[in-house]
Specification:
Elements: E1 3-12, E2 16-19, H1 20-24, H2 31-38, E3 42-45, H3 53-68, E4 77-81, H4 92-100, E5 106-110, H5 116-129, E6 136-143, H6 153-156, E7 161-171, E8 176-184, E9 192-194, H7 205-209, E10 215-217, H8 219-240, E11 250-253, H9 258-268, H10 279-282, H11 289-296, E12 306-313, E13 317-324
Parallel strand pairs: 4-5, 4-6, 11-12
Antiparallel strand pairs: 1-7, 2-3, 6-7, 8-13, 9-10, 12-13
């Protein structure tokens, strides 16, 4: 049975580092307060005027192509998870394809906030399983610094910028994307959103003055829903595939908050040393967190490893994916 296997992964983060000490000079906060509540010590910022999410993603995709020996002309499809695309339209996927010279592919974006990579990966896998395409790239990229209010200490400490990409190809050896469970609850839009800039509330002098083009979050609500949502879908996908906890090699959670990550591990009775964590140096890069983890842990992943990816994002959106690692 044909499955979509992850046959390569690569990531890219900007050079500029925004440390907690830097934030202390910008808002009323301090390193101890930030670390104790979020686990974040620094984050990367894409500070290049005139450039956007596509420019941050291109090095990740080019690195992926070089690593896997794939020519841009062989790419069939690209799906990009992002909430900070270059434009409202056209989509960022087609812009990336143009910049890397992929002339035979089409692409589109998926906006599912922090669950964007999971939604994109699941969607892409279906094109492989159906036999429609043989080489699909999935990108998670966000320039969160472009929509963060650096006068709001509750949110500006959380987010960073980054990009990650994976190549999907057909596999028939029992590895690949085995199963996925995706969920959503539109009522969550009240607790995590950007208030203005869409058709409901178009940009105006009033919305800009009111600072409504930045991330808005009610943290306590998000925390509770995030933990419960990720735990429930992890359990469901594991049980559905008769996978006991001791056979899960790695848990790859969205890097939103260290307290959320540890709460999920505790509720699952899952060993924290088998949880991929890099939030301390990148913060919450939204759609990029999971592929950045896979990229950084790539040398520890072994062929056939059972891995569960899980995320929770604004909307609300959440889910978990069971992957059996395909790279030999």
């Amino acid at each position: 049975m044909i499955k979509a296997g992850i046959t390569g992964v690569h990531g890219h983060v900007p050079d500029k580092i925004l440390s907690n000490a830097d934030l202390e000079k910008m808002v009323d906060t301090n390193d101890e307060w930030i670390v104790s509540r979020t686990g974040i010590r620094e984050r990367r910022i894409f500070d290049e005027p005139g450039k956007g999410a596509s420019d941050l993603a291109v090095p990740a995709v080019q690195g992926l192509l070089k690593k896997t020996g794939v020519d841009p002309s062989d790419i069939d499809l690209m799906i990009v998870g992002t909430v900070t695309g270059d434009y409202v339209f056209p989509d960022t996927a087609n812009t990336i394809l143009d910049k890397i010279g992929a002339k035979n592919a089409f692409g589109f974006d998926i906006n599912a906030a922090c669950s964007g990579f999971l939604y994109s990966l699941t969607t892409a896998s279906k094109f492989i399983e159906a036999g429609t395409y043989k080489k699909v790239i999935v990108v998670g990229v966000d320039v969160m610094s472009s929509i963060v209010d650096y006068t709001d200490r509750a949110t500006c400490i959380l987010f960073g910028d980054g990009a990650g990409a994976v190549l999907l190809e057909p596999v028939d050896d029992g590895t690949g994307i085995i199963d996925s469970i995706l969920r959503s609850d539109g009522n969550g839009r009240h607790y995590l959103q950007m208030k203005a800039g869409g058709s409901l509330k178009p940009a105006s002098i009033e919305t800009v003055t009111a600072r409504e083009h930045f991330v808005y979050q009610e943290g306590k609500h998000v925390f509770k829903y995030a933990v419960n949502g990720m735990v429930s879908t992890i359990k469901e996908v594991a049980e559905r595939n008769n996978l006991p906890t001791d056979q899960i090699k790695w848990l790859v959670p969205h890097q939103a908050n260290m307290r959320i990550i540890t709460s999920v591990a505790d509720m699952l009775d899952f060993p924290i040393e088998k949880v991929m964590i890099n939030i301390q140096k990148y913060g919450n890069t939204t759609s990029a967190t999971i592929p950045l983890c896979l990229w950084e842990w790539e040398d520890k992943l072994k062929y056939g490893d059972n891995i569960i990816l899980t995320a929770f994002g604004g909307g609300f959106t959440w889910g978990s994916i069971l992957v059996k690692w395909s790279v030999k």
